[in-house]
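Dear colleagues,

As part of the handover before I leave the project, I'm documenting each prediction I ran so the next person doesn't have to rerun anything. This entry is a single chain, and its sequence is reproduced below.
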Amino acid sequence: MPGPFKTEAVVLRSIRYGEADRILHLYTAERGRIGAIAKGVRRPRSRFGARLEPFFRTRLVLHEGRGDLSTVTAAQTVHAHPALRERRGALERATQACDAVLRLFDAAEPNRPAYHLLCRELALLDADPTAATRAHGLAFRLKLLLAAGFLPELASCAACGEREHLSGFSASDGGVVCDGCEANAFPLTPEAHGFLVAALTRPLAEAPEAPDPALRQADRAIAETLEHHAHVRLRRVA
């Protein structure tokens, strides 16, 4: 029912509204994605300061009214991630990560694995200057597919179950396919397949590297899975 509530959230997007307000897209631990308004936040003496900028992880007190937007009444920074804002590559990866969560998780339903994955990604990009690689961005996106329930089959042919001769990827079939089931697939090299498996099984901080052609194929496999099963189209990871 309407009233005040507390939550921890990551600011995915912040949009100017009126003379001094901002509309916020938040991803929260307890409620999933929510919209909020921060009134007067753009005024020089705002009590929120800069604590509601994109990529901030923050503890919030909000008031839920009858409309679609809750009102921010208090904010306390958990992690500002200042270093990632100083590096172009990290900033681009953080923007891609938040946009992916914004597009893929559009309901007010909690998904703690997705929330903690996003928090981990932003913390890594802030702490490690070498983390903003294409391979790292793809590893994050693949793990996000797992959290969303759209992970493609990678261990055996998605069409017939064959575990050998996996040479293609078919989003419509649901993952990798063998030589005999590749009619609707695009070619997937062993390097690309190996990258997908390693990126899924290793911790995010230990995302594997791979040659550019393999990364392009992995990117296509992830993108086509998102488009076919989640009906979400994201910009490719460059």
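The chain has five helices and eight strands. The longest strand covers residues 3-17.

All the best with the project,
I.
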